[in-house]
């Protein structure tokens, strides 16, 4: 896929960057009937983020696919990530 003369993988790169920024702003993104949908707190969707999402829309649809949501990590998920960063591959977070 090319996006206005950019290298073929640039669309995927723009999509990842736009999704990361959106999730960092506590937005939830998903694909419904082939269309990009989102839910965002008031003020989260800045003009520059809106433009980035529009520009990377096709690549975001490909990246997420139907039925998947991209949302901020829960507090529990953040703790598990931190533990894994502290001790990669460790068994600290395993429950029995």
Q: Descriptors for this entry?
A:
disordered N terminus; single chain; globular; alpha+beta; 3-stranded antiparallel sheet
How would you describe the overall organization of this protein?
This protein has 96 residues and is of the alpha+beta class. The chain has one domain (10-86). It has helices at residues 10-24, 47-55, 57-64, 75-86, and strands at 28-32, 35-39, 69-70. The protein has a three-stranded antiparallel beta sheet. Helix 1 packs antiparallel against helix 2 and helix 1 (10-24) crosses helix 3. The radius of gyration is 16 Å and the shape is globular. Mean pLDDT is 79; it is low at 1-6.
